[in-house]
Amino acid sequence: MNLANVLTIIGFVFFAVIFLICLVIVIYLYIVDRTQKQHPILRNYPVIGRARYFLEQIGPELRQYFFNNDNEGKPFSRKDYQHIVKKAKYKRDVIGFGSQRDFEEQGFYIRNSMFPKLTEELKMDQDTKVTTNRYLLLKDPLFTQKKEELEKHESSAYLLEDEDAIVIGKDTKYPFIVKGQIGMSAMSYGSLGDRAITALSEGLGIAKGTWMNSGEGGISDYHLKGGVDIIMQIGPGLFGVRDKQGNFSWEALSEKSKIPQVKAFEIKLAQGAKTRGGHIDGEKVTEEIARIRMVEPFKSIDSPNRFREFSDLPSLFDFIERIRDHTGKPVGMKVVIGSHHEADELARIMKETGKGPDFITVDGGEGGTGASYQELADSVGLPIKSALPLVNNALMKHGVRDRVKIIASGKLFSPDRIAIALAMGADLVNIARGFMITVGCIQALKCESNACPVGVATTDPELQKALVIDEKKYRTANYLITMRKGLFRLAAAAGLDSPVHFNREHIVYKNEKGEVWPLEDLYQTIVYKGS
């Protein structure tokens, strides 16, 4: 028997075995599907019906990468996502050919000046420089991998001048002074893994002039690694400032206040995507996280809906006063606004009592979360462009606006969105998901599952191996620096020498008919309807 015949027989036997194995699997699945009681489709269409569940499982990926156009995806479109990545990876933010915005739709626009400011006329810290790593795109062929080169790049930090620096808690013993108007919103260790928190901390530290909100999970060593300023958030669960019985601990608060990087405290009443206490699934609660939060490991954590320490605004303000006196540092509050009445009551009681926060973080309903419930995320709390004017107006109406700084958050991931928020009354802005994208988030929408495929929103050690801190930290820095640069660019276009001067007169609103209203007129409408 020659070699060709031997190979033919071997090949026939091989394929026969493969066929028999497949046949046995199909028969087994047929029997299982026909007899199971959970899925009607599989009972009627055994084996073939499995294709339906397979396609359903990969549906989000198919829509994200193939079927949604560049402007359709939620919560962030492909265009939005790519703009963030481009800033972070290449430290560039230019586009070609033209905008993809639908100019027929209603929306806000920044009013340009016929005589914009020259670069040398901008009031900007010219001395502070930062060095990061960025990629240069050399070739982008269709069928082979991109050719990119990593280079060191020095640039301005694009910080405010000293005289324009934002001072939070000017009357406290230790005021918090910031020279950049963009910081990181609350993201807890536990919601994100240690590598993600470390990369963000180190990246923000490289960029300078910013802050990192700890989230309600308490301060970890990973928050401190980058040397960045920290706002410590205190949620209803009191993680990081509680005793073993779960009661508020003034001793623990003192310990945290002695950390040099901790510049302020924030009392979290609510979050845009969840107007309730936080939630973290048990599989994310490692022994280290449990130690930091003083809870049991590997058990789900649900914070109470509100603090037990206070039940109304006067008692909240008393609690804020005690923390401020105890630590000497600024104390703020994070809120979600649901109506004009709430904003007005907040400002009125600040006026009547002479007490209140040093800053108010206004979180819009469009904000993100590691875990929430659909009905809360979709329908509870106003979005930022509605909530922010209500708060700012109420504070001005009662004459207490100069006592408090406003931090806005809610999908403010680009310089134009930030400029509009500043004009609506914000002094500073927080960003969360934009920074998540800089360290590798692909918007897989699995933050609550501990199965984040890129190692960002997970505490699984194996999945976290995907995240390389020494590479991602520079992307975080690049994104922030490029955002601040864009904000100065917009200020110049509006005829301003600094973005701190954005106000109502610099924004107009256009409806679907092309009719235009100054933001000032919209404010008057808000005041009138709310009175």
UniProtKB/TrEMBL annotation:
It comes from the Bacteria. GO terms for molecular function: glutamate synthase activity. InterPro entries: Aldolase_TIM, GltB, Glu_synthdom, YerD. Pfam families: Glu_synthase (PF01645). The chain crosses the membrane at residues 6-31. Keywords: Membrane, Transmembrane, Transmembrane helix. Coiled coil: none annotated. PANTHER family: ARCHAEAL-TYPE GLUTAMATE SYNTHASE [NADPH] (PTHR43819). Belongs to the glutamate synthase family. This is Glutamate synthase domain-containing protein.
